[in-house]
Amino acid sequence: MRPSSRTITVEVHADLVCPWCYIGKRRLDRALDAFPHADEVHLVHRAFQLDPGAPRPGTPAREHLAERLGPRADAVLAHTARVAAEEGIAMDFGRALIGNTFDAHRVLWLAGTEGKQTEVKERLYAAYFSEGRDLTRPEVLAAAAAPDLDPDRVLEVLAGTGGTAEVTADLGTARTRGIRSVPTLVVDGRLSLEGAQDTAALLALLERAREEAAPRSAG
User: Fold this and answer.
1) pLDDT confidence of 4, banded at 50, 70, 90?
2) Are strands 97-98 and 59-60 parallel, antiparallel or unpaired?
3) Which of 21, 74, 147, 215 has an alpha carbon 20 to 30 Å from 207's alpha carbon atom?
């Protein structure tokens, strides 16, 4: 949908190896399904990297998270997996391979040029969290993005510099906005909501944005 004076622009800053970003996406999807004016929402998925220095290829996520979280790692991961399951997501941290997500964000940029960001983002999340795929590998990204994107086109972009400037710009926007944790939603450039909020909170944000935009639209 092309943005208009009536459009509510929702920017989602998120990383593709962030479990709460995946949970937050499912909740936002549900909020949009319930929002009576969803046709007025222009959704933009923006890149964010929790660890810009993460390795290529990916390494076992459970080991990485155990080092980071210490003794509470198992309890934290189990809790996260339970919450994810309530959203219909199967998170298998034992299979997940954590790695640098810059190229995965480039694929998401490409999806945006074809109006397929939401679909491709869901596929990339599933590939990482449920299927144990390494999102640092071009062939994995191409397969995960299909059938929404042409795999040959994905490989062509990844072999060059396509999307590099745009992803870098997204990361800069997040810094400028002071975003330090994700998911973070920015609505119409002025309303923000941090964390994987429940559907009611997301709906309230959308309603508030529409109400505050109404006078400008009328004028």
Assistant:
1) very low
2) antiparallel
3) 21
Cβ atoms of 17 and 101 closer than 8 Å: yes
The DSSP H or E segment spanning 184 is strand 184-187
Domain 9-203 maps to which CATH number in 3.40.50.720, 3.40.30.10, 3.40.1390.30, 2.130.10.10?
3.40.30.10
**In Å, how far are 46, 101, 165 from 118, measured between CA atoms?**
11, 17, 21
Residue with tokens 């639209």: 217
What does pTM read for this prediction? 0.92
- Is the torsion defined by CA of 157, 163, 167, 170 positive or negative? negative
Residue carrying structure tokens 């309890």: 75
Length of the chain, in residues: 219
Instruction: Show Cβ contacts of residue 192 under 8 Å, excluding neighbours closer than 6 positions.
Output: 177, 184, 185, 186
Structure tokens belonging to residue 139: 């062939």
Q: In this predicted structure, which of 83-87, 124-128, 193-197, 213-217 has the lowest mean pLDDT?
A: 213-217
